[in-house]
Amino acid sequence: MKGHKHNIFVICLLLFSQFTCVAQAEYEGLSGQLLFDAVRESCAPKSYISLNEVWTAFRTTDNAGNNTIINRFSADKYCFIEQDASPEGLNVANILPKAWWADGYGENMDLDLHNLLPAPIEVQNLKRDYPPGRIDESTFDNGFWAVGLMQFGDDYINVYAPPKGYEGDFARAVFYILTVYPSARFSGFGVNFCLKASFPILQPWSKRQLLAWANSDPVDDNERARNDAIFNIQGNRNHFIDFPELIDYIWGEKASLPYEPPKEEIQPTPLRATYHLTEDVIDLFSPYIPQDATWTIDGKDATKNSYSPEELGIGLHNITYRTASVFGKIIIEIVQ
Questions:
Q1: Structural domain includes residue 269
Q2: Tens digit of pLDDT per residue, the chain (336 long)?
Q3: Closest by alpha carbon to 121, among 160, 78, 157?
Q4: Same domain flag for 201 and 57
Q5: Domain match, 244 and 329 both
Q6: Whether residue 209 sits in one domain with residue 144
Q7: Which one of 279, 292, 311, 312 has the largest count of C-beta atoms within 10 Å of its C-beta?
Q8: What residues make up the domain containing 285?
């Protein structure tokens, strides 16, 4: 049985690896509105749960283990009860409210798990339809999250501060929501947060704040696990979690540049005794030799970190390494 579980895990890992390559290839070379539209199309939910199924879904997406619910908003502990029932004292909180979307836009966003979280009942009552923002004068603060006033020009607006340690999670969720459910017309508090355009959709202040949160609180394993769990339920992912660099290409410093997937860092291969002439590379590296070592090959200073066997030629070669306190010699042979 354990073997089957292991095989399933490996298959899932391979499928996800293939998925990431395909998704990044779809975005490569795109910028601006074209990149934004491509992310929206790729991230759109394949299905939605019903309101009656939300707490069943939370058992997978927000389970801390031992039937305990992940509560981001206070120190209070809650547990799941019946399959579809809301535990006493808890409610479903929206990261962004559907009330912002005018004229029928935002359909089903209040059923999208990327926009929903389990939370104490008072959370939704306190945050209302306020946008997330930086609080200058708090009216509520329990040490986990806060509600209050933010200076907005010569005036003040009501905002809520995301839970501490989850600022990046909330920012990436907001980027996802506004991408998957764009609108050229917002109402209520959404007018202060969003532009009157479907792209780039964010006001300058809200863009700066979300970028700051996303940068200060990078993606972690818990956020990735929640993204995986939602994918298993509604068939879509938040690509701002999978590929956080997309945020910079759409709203950040690289907004005018075509998207380039980050290059995977290739780890050097430790030196060994024998190489074939047809092999690609000989790396001047060993886990037992300090990284600041200087190298020579056959008495000449090495000018780079890697050489091809063809460069050195068939035969024996003396490789030395030296640091302030260590000196050594390695002999390698290149064969046909």
A1: no
A2: 333 433 433 333 334 444 455 567 889 999 999 999 999 999 999 999 999 999 999 999 999 998 999 999 999 999 999 777 889 999 999 999 999 998 778 889 999 999 999 999 999 999 999 999 999 999 999 999 999 999 988 899 999 999 999 999 999 999 999 999 999 889 999 999 999 888 999 999 999 999 999 999 999 999 999 999 999 999 999 999 999 999 999 999 999 899 998 877 678 889 999 999 988 899 999 988 888 899 999 999 999 999 999 999 999 999 999 998 889 999 999 998
A3: 78
A4: yes
A5: no
A6: yes
A7: 312
A8: 274-335
